[in-house]
Write a structure and sequence with these properties.
6-stranded mixed beta sheet; Rossmann fold; 16 strands; 18% strand
């Protein structure tokens, strides 16, 4: 297996290089040059497998010869020991043929743990082999950064650097970010939006100041973030139909990696017949799916804060697939987007995407109504991000006989204050006194301050 850049097929890399990277050298994203395809019969045989064994079956073609089989199996087994449920990602039924796939049983109670826990172990494995040091870099509006900090905490060869917006991170996540061990974590509060933080990370990769220390991305720009999510679709499909029954998924737009991973899972052989993207007021993805109009926007604050942004890096990988791996077309589209902040794709490719993908923008009022109605009718508590997906699934599913699965991205305890106010959860207990964190505050585009901090490592 080898990988190429979405912007140049001439840029090639093996799996090890991809794991230990941020962006491709030309600014694109690494993608596998080809995809493994599994037969229905082959997938059916996986129904009895434990989660780590299923993960090995799905992931091993992407890893190729980069890691010996026994080593990879050991890494995967160790990865999923960090999750606090026997099923790793259990399904909970919320209505007739409607389910929530609970992805929040990891250490930080967020779906981000699936990518972070795997990535940390892969990075540690390869850095040990190379005898190298690294800084793991990314932008966060809370959960992605916390998952990376927790996962890489035991990776002695690396430090974590997070950029986050000074306004827009929920208070509990902000406290945890500020409480991170400064000996292991460099934190920068950026006087801008989460989208600004992402842009700064991309620029930092292009201008990395440390010659002898690798820069590795912890956001889903790194292929591992996608690969870890693909397994989840196989897991759910096997539980609800042995991998041969058609199935649909509803995905809250806290990342495009999950959407792209579902699309790839279908191309690998899963009978996925619908993907619904749910957004909040920050509806850039909904506008793309609904009108073929994607644009950078000022983020609005909502009750589902992990979805309060407009730039989705993995959309580039999706466009690369839609355009039949035409790297030059993708480069032209992304160059135009970076200049104008607007993107539309060729109508035939947009229609191709619409054959599988629908979308719906959910208001805060609808989100709250869905949380309270589901609790009233079933006693089940969901967080506001999952609520957008559950509502979109019910309103926009194409078939009542096809199981519809919403990705439950976050544990309800991460929205405890809101849910307590709605009467569906006990009020959160105040945390004991914490030491005050001292992240550096910087302005948008201030890479000089970051470079000076890195030089002191």
């Amino acid at each position: 297996m080898h990988y190429v850049s979405t912007r140049s097929a001439a840029v090639r890399a093996d799996f090890e290089t991809v794991v230990l990277s941020g962006l491709a050298e030309d600014g694109g994203l690494y993608v596998p040059a080809s995809l493994p395809v599994f037969s229905a019969q082959e997938v059916t045989y996986w129904s009895w497998l434990p989660f780590d064994e299923l993960a090995w079956r799905v992931m091993s073609p992407f890893v190729g010869q980069a890691i010996p089989e026994d080593d990879l199996k050991g890494l995967l087994k160790d990865t999923y020991r960090a999750f606090g449920h026997r099923s790793i990602a259990p399904l909970h039924q919320v209505d007739r043929n409607e389910w929530v796939l609970e992805l929040f049983h990891g250490p930080t109670r967020a779906s981000k743990d699936f990518a972070a826990q795997l990535h940390a172990r892969l990075v540690s494995y390869f850095l040990d082999r190379r005898q190298q040091q690294a800084v793991v870099v990314g932008a966060t509006n809370g959960d992605t950064g916390l998952a990376a900090i927790e996962a890489f905490g035991s990776c002695e060869q690396s430090r974590v650097m997070v950029l986050y917006p000074s306004n827009g991170v929920p208070e509990d996540r902000l406290n945890e970010l500020q409480d991170a061990d400064p000996a292991r974590v460099l934190a920068f509060a950026v006087d801008g939006s989460f989208d600004d933080c992402q842009a700064m990370v991309a620029q930092l990769f292009r201008q990395w100041p440390l010659a002898n220390v690798r820069a590795i991305g912890f956001n889903s720009t790194n292929w591992v973030g996608v690969m870890a999510q693909i397994v989840l679709y196989f897991h759910a499909a096997l539980q609800l139909g042995g991998g041969v029954r058609p199935i649909g998924f509803s995905i809250p737009a806290a990342s495009f990696a999950e959407v792209y991973a579902g699309y790839i899972a279908q191309k690998m052989g899963l009978p996925i017949n619908q993907i619904i993207i749910s957004t909040n007021r920050n509806d850039a993805l909904h506008q793309f799916v609904h009108k073929n109009q994607y644009s950078k926007r000022q983020a609005n604050r909502t009750v589902s804060p992990a979805m309060d942004f407009s730039i989705f890096s993995n959309l580039e990988r999706f466009v690369w697939e839609l355009y039949g791996h035409d790297d030059q077309a993708v480069r032209a589209l992304m160059d135009s987007f970076e200049t104008t902040g607007e993107l539309s794709i060729a109508n035939k490719h947009w229609l191709q995407a619409r054959m599988l993908i629908d979308s719906y923008a959910v208001t805060d009022e609808q989100t709250i109504d869905e949380i309270t109605a589901l609790f009233r009718d079933t006693g089940y508590v969901i967080d506001p991000h999952t609520a957008t997906g559950v509502l979109a699934a019910r309103l926009y599913r194409r078939s009542m006989v096809t199981p519809m699965v919403t990705l439950g991205e976050f544990s309800p305890v991460k929205s405890a204050a809101l849910l307590a106010g709605l009467g569906v959860m006990a009020a959160p207990v105040s945390a004991p006194g914490r030491r005050a964190g001292h992240p550096q505050s910087i302005r948008v585009g201030d890479l000089d301050t970051i470079a000076r901090a890195l030089a002191e490592l």
